[in-house]
Amino acid sequence: MNKPDFTKYMDYGELTSALEDLVKENPGLSKMYSIGKTYEGRDMWLVELTNFAKGNPDEKPGMYIDGNHHAGEVTGSAVCLYTIWYLLSNYGEDPFVTELLDEKTFYVLPRISIDGAEIFLHTPLSLRSSTRPYPPRDREEGLVPEDIDGDGWILQMRVKDPDGDWKVSDKDPRLMVKRQPWDKEGPFYKVYPEGIIKNWDGGEIRVAPPKWGLDINRNYPANWEPEANQRGSGPYPLSEPETRNVADFILAHPNIGGAMSYHTTMGAILRPSCTKPDEKLPALDVAIYKTIGQKGTELTGYPHVSTYEDYTTDKAHPLKGVFMDWLYEHMGIITFSTELWDASVRAGNKLFDRQSRSSEEGQLNLLKWNDRELAGKAFSPWKKFNHPQLGEVEIGGWKSKFTLMNPPPQFLEGECHKNCLFTLYHASCLPKLAIEKVLAEKLSDGLYKVTVTVKNKGYMPTNVSQQAIAAGRAKPVIVEIEGSSLQIVAGKAREDIGHLDGLASVGRSYFGWAGEPAPSRKKEVQWVVKGQDGMVVRVKASSPRAGVAEATIRLGE
């Protein structure tokens, strides 16, 4: 199988071609289709992966994976593409992968902010998500980012100013550090993004609000708040075609029980909730998150953390309208959101430590890493430039797109591989229905007792999460019996047996749930039926997120 090039970041055309090639080579395991169009009219391509010869894909436990909610976070698209390639190339070779594709369905949407990613990849500009101008305003005012020196990058400008709040580090002339109250001898500087000042009156310089201010990962219904309270949230929940398409797809696939959404940059595996601490969540759900998250840490080296407790810096203003919270709170889907890549840790700074990253020492470590590993190419030395409005300035700084925000190309495949493995292990934890045994006991001529034992062999319960029950998204396990000319004397042809616990529930007393009913991973269903010796009886157990299990037995045998 042809392997995509995982040493480059693909634009829309290249990514589409790579997906088409993989699907064309593997028609029995994959198909590709659009779930809708973006703001600019591009198709949002999704690849569905499963062994189509082994059951209806919509009746298998589903794992949803996406990347690139944010335009510049193109590493997420690469991990999605790698996951597709890894599953297809290892089917039939790796028993773990083979079992996953036989029993589960993967839905992989590599890129959500497609329009924005085109701008990010093909121009010096950066943006958060969509290219729809938002919020609307009468005219542009303030400093607008622009590549004014024509070198292909939008960096920083430093301007000498006796009232400036920055100075040059005495440890490395490339590094700008904050001026301290006791600093009296300059030179001092003002530091701005490289750009042009629109409608400037010659007074104070303010950075203009972004032209493209939408953050579509604040546009989902969970805890959504308007722009005044949550920047970038959009005019109303699911106002954007990209988020609406994703939500419609999730709602149309009730078999989805697990999800992964890839972002950058922090080097951390985030989990719900964005708005409340663990103590406010169902205890079993937290235990499931921690167990799966720990496997993620072992595979990736990233810590697994509560977004609210460990990631959010301002607890009074937590993140609202986030995709991960919508999937968990409204849909009951066990969801992680991995912040891929952390150049700061590569440089020797502390793991998951904002203070370490931003300190002078942390920045010096980054510069040393750039010199050592990247031949100094990621940082542009300060150079004088005659700005059309400000006169002499100096332009320089980090070429951050593919060093700080995304890995340098030579590190990309390694980032893809370890995160792909974590997502596959997450998928392996989904519930799995099985019929453990079927018995048919002859009571008298033409009368039989049929007994079936249904078991959940998976780690998660068949409802996936307790939150799914609370949100009304947990369908019960249904057990059905049928046969030609079969008559049911006692019992129902279609029995609702509720939910079955998973392996996660076996250690309930461990988590302080003493006094609750003992975990039940299997249940027995019985019928009394009329039939004849040799008649074939079929039994079927099904639940949207736990799959389907079937068995047959002949009466009288």
From TrEMBL:
Organism domain of life: Bacteria
PANTHER family, per database record: PROTEASE FAMILY M14 CARBOXYPEPTIDASE A,B, SLL0236 PROTEIN
Protein name, UniProt field: Carboxypeptidase
Keyword Aminoacyl-tRNA synthetase tagged: no
Family of the protein in this entry: Belongs to the peptidase M14 family.
Domain Peptidase M14: 8-374
Cofactor(s) the protein needs: Zn(2+)
Pfam families, per the entry: Peptidase_M14 (PF00246)
GO MF term list: metallocarboxypeptidase activity; zinc ion binding
Keywords of the record: Carboxypeptidase, Hydrolase, Metalloprotease, Protease, Zinc
GO biological process terms on file: proteolysis
Catalytic site: E339 (proton donor/acceptor)
A single GO cellular-component term on record: extracellular space
PROSITE patterns: PEPTIDASE_M14
